[in-house]
Amino acid sequence: MDSKSLAFYPFVTEAFSYVENLGFSLDRLLNSRALDSARFRGKERIIQSLDESEIQKPGLTGSEEEKILLELLSYPFSRILVSCVNDSYLIRRYALAEAESASKLLKSENNEFLIEMAADFNVSINPLDSHFAMHFTDYIKLANTMKDLKWKLVNRRLKQGYVHITREEVARLLQEAIRDRIQSTLPLDVTTDVCSTCEPYLNEIKETLQNLKSDVNIDDMGGVDTESFPPCISTAISGVSTGDNLGHSMRFALTSFLLNVGMTVDEIVDLFNVSPDFDEEKTRYQIEHIAGSSGTSYTPPSCQTMKTYGNCYGGDEFCKKINHPLNYYRKKLYRKVKMEKEKENQGKQDQTRN
Predict the structure, then answer these.
(1) 108 with 167, same domain?
(2) Same domain, yes or no, for 24 and 103?
(3) Tens of pLDDT along 264-306?
(4) Do 238 and 182 belong together in one domain?
(5) Is residue 157 one of the residues assigned to a domain?
(6) DSSP code of 12?
(7) Order of strands, edge to edge, in the sheet holding 132-135?
């Protein structure tokens, strides 16, 4: 790979060797003023993985050697920062974000590049006319953590021991290999002195991580914010309000979601009041049961389960970053509150200046 490609895929074996041959010592990476931008970018990679679930790749041209070097050095620095925080949730989140960002780029790479990338993970793929073939043992190794039913080997086209996959599926499978490589090599064995030197960069990461892990306490938000509902729930509510008769699985998903975000049994009963087969006594009993009258309260199904039962209606860009309707609500609500607080603080600052 050329240096630009290594900057986009800094986790490959060749990138490690390339950076090592540059001769940058750990002390220089941590303290040189000339590398301030690389350290800032390293912190930015982590913040983006937490705030956006995606690490934005810079626009690079072959002549921008300085930007390429910055990107290459920012990756090992970000790994140091993640290791200093040493939080399992952060490690998983960061590894996934790096992998997803790389996977998006891989979809547009040529066949030769994909073959080379796969080989770096000891996976062999063979290009065919309009797709690729991967040996079923490699396929199982990469797809075993993927829950969508379409990735199950029994649901794939298998010929003479090879699974036929599209270019997009190659990129998705390699995403799993990338995620596993990054996640399994963290945390690094960093010293307290190294982490002390990195402290100015760690504060924002720790604060962002804490806010994300705590998300928003729904009970403290002073009411249900319907604007933060995921598309599946909003679509179901629209259907109910116009008299559509929802299927059992969608009724359960909708009811359990609304209960978990703070709506009362009475409010949900009123919501179903316009359904063509509405029976108040039966509806109330079912809602109270889901709310925990029998001793067990329920949470809504995951996004994967919603898809399995045909209750996911395509989603939006935000849906790509979460795996559960409640996580969608909490994160969107957190963003909304955060923006309102920033706006409020900005207003106070403006008043102080005046």
Answers:
(1) yes
(2) yes
(3) 998 899 888 876 677 888 899 999 999 888 777 788 888 888 8
(4) no
(5) yes
(6) S
(7) 125-127, 132-135, 162-165, 158-159
